[in-house]
Amino acid sequence: MKRWLFLLPLLALIASPLHAAPAPSNGEYIILVGGPSLMEWEKYKAQPHDHWWANFVRAARIRTEQVRDQLGPDAKITWLVYKQGYIDRAAQEHQDLIGFIESVHEKFNLKLVWIRNGDDVINYLNEGEPRNTVKVTGFEYFGHSNKACFMFDYSSNIDSSAKSWLHEKQLGNIHRGIFAKNAHIQSWGCHTGESMSQKWRAATGTHMIGALGKTQFMMEELPVLCSPGGKWVSD
User: Fold this and answer.
1) Is residue 20 part of a domain?
2) How far is CA 108 from the centre of its chain?
3) Residue 22 lies in a domain
4) The domain containing residue 103 runs over which residues?
5) What is the dihedral of CA 186, 191, 194, 196, to 10 degrees?
6) Interior CA angle at 35 toward 198 and 12, to 5°?
7) How far is 50 from 174, CA to CA, in rounded Å?
8) Sign of torsion, CA 153 39 45 157?
9) Residue 21 in domain
């Protein structure tokens, strides 16, 4: 899932996944952002991941602008970000990546919460706000994934693997009833629609849009499908 700049032939593969009913504005919209790979693991691969450190941050920012325009300036929007991935990549980039992410939080009037693992994500979903009154109106993920797992540190700690994740086996710990009616739930990572979307619905009662096949993160638009026959599905 690296940044390509020449994907016009792939644009025909896009089936827009954003035609869900608009999310209500009187709740909390949550965007989960995973971390990038490190070049020490990726540089010798035929198709290395994450040439650009901001693959996922940029896509999350584009989507945040859309949500902010849709829901208005006062709607609650929260970013959950895997912090360690950006600390580790900052040493490679020789830049203050944490500061860059915090500047997005300030520009878009976001609540920024740093997370370490899937348990942190579940705990925030369940208890980050009083869920009897502040329902989750949307939940979207930008990051590495396979069919059963969001991988927050893919190819960061371990080559082509992860030590920090949210696995489909953990989804039963999400409380039912925390989501608003018509909440928009989506993973923009690879392969989610092949298993995790179904497990999400079984655990939460809500539909998660996910990809069959791989997705490609871009610079100036939301991720696109890039596998032959790839499509967006909702369990």
Assistant:
1) no
2) 17
3) no
4) 8-15+28-234
5) -50
6) 60
7) 30
8) negative
9) no
Beta strands in 54-106, from DSSP E residues, in sequence order: 76-82
Over the stretch 103-137, which tens digit does the pLDDT of each residue have?
998 899 999 999 999 999 999 999 999 999 999 99
Structure tokens at 59: 């896509």
Tens-digit pLDDT profile for residues 165-195? 999 999 999 999 999 999 999 999 999 999 9
The pLDDT confidence band at residue 25, using thresholds 50, 70 and 90, is low
* Helix pair angle (97-107, 83-93), 10° resolution: 120
* 121 and 32 Cβ atoms separated by less than 8 Å: yes
Number of domains observed in the structure of the chain: 1
Residues 3/36, Cβ–Cβ less than 8 Å: no
Distance separating alpha carbons of residues 197 and 217, to the nearest angstrom = 20
Tell me the DSSP string of 153-212.
Answer: TTTTSSTT--SSEEEGGGGGGSPTT-EEEEEEEEE-SSSGGGTHHHHHHHHHSS-EEEEE
Distant-in-sequence, close-in-space partners of 189: CB < 8 Å, separation ≥ 6: 1, 34, 141, 142, 143, 144, 145, 150, 210, 211, 215
The whole-angstrom separation of Cα 89 and Cα 27 is: 33
Q: Is residue 118 part of a domain?
A: yes
Q: Which of 132, 129, 204 is nearest to 168 (CA)?
A: 204
Output phi, psi for 81, to 5 deg: -125, 135
Sign (positive or negative) of CA dihedral 18, 173, 37, 52 = positive
Helix axes 55-71, 97-107, angle to 10 degrees: 10
Q: Round to whole Å and give the CA distance between 148 and 220.
A: 28
